[in-house]
């Protein structure tokens, strides 16, 4: 009985010591998404960054400066596309970035979105309702 209790206590100590290392490693994997990316047409650079526990992306360079004229909000139609937060509220879970939203300044529409990173390629899927009804674009990391 004493050996059983000692074994259980040893296991609990080992688990409690290992969990912070696992969480830290998982966080490093999640943070790999941060950095600069080309838009699919290479007409904009997008910076992906972390705020709190979520990931966001904004335009930091555009080839053709323009206004957000397609925005459904009249007050936002005169703002510059440069600097707009296009990707908002992504959480990392099971190797993917989910529960986010993407704003498309070309149409003025906002979609549900999920992303996954494969090497230097960021796969971005915007959709309405369920992922089946959407479009996938690929963003190339800028080195």
Short description:
With 143 residues, the chain is α+β, with helices and mostly antiparallel strands. It is built from one helix and eight strands; from the N terminus they run H-E-E-E-E-E-E-E-E.
Describe this structure in words.
The chain is an alpha+beta fold. The chain folds into two domains: 1-31; 34-141, Lipocalin (Beta Barrel). Helices cover 20% and strands 45% of the residues. The protein has an eight-stranded antiparallel beta barrel with strand order 1-2-3-4-5-6-7-8. The protein is globular.
Keywords:
143 residues; single chain; alpha+beta; Lipocalin
Distance between the termini: 59 Å
Catalogue the unreliable spans.
none
Strand content: 35-45%
Mean pLDDT across the residues is: 88
The spatial strand order of the largest sheet comes to 1-2-3-4-5-6-7-8
The class by helix and strand makeup works out as: alpha+beta
CA radius of gyration: 20 Å
Kindly identify the CATH topology of the largest domain: Lipocalin
Enumerate how many helices there are, as a single number. Answer: 1
Number of domains: 2
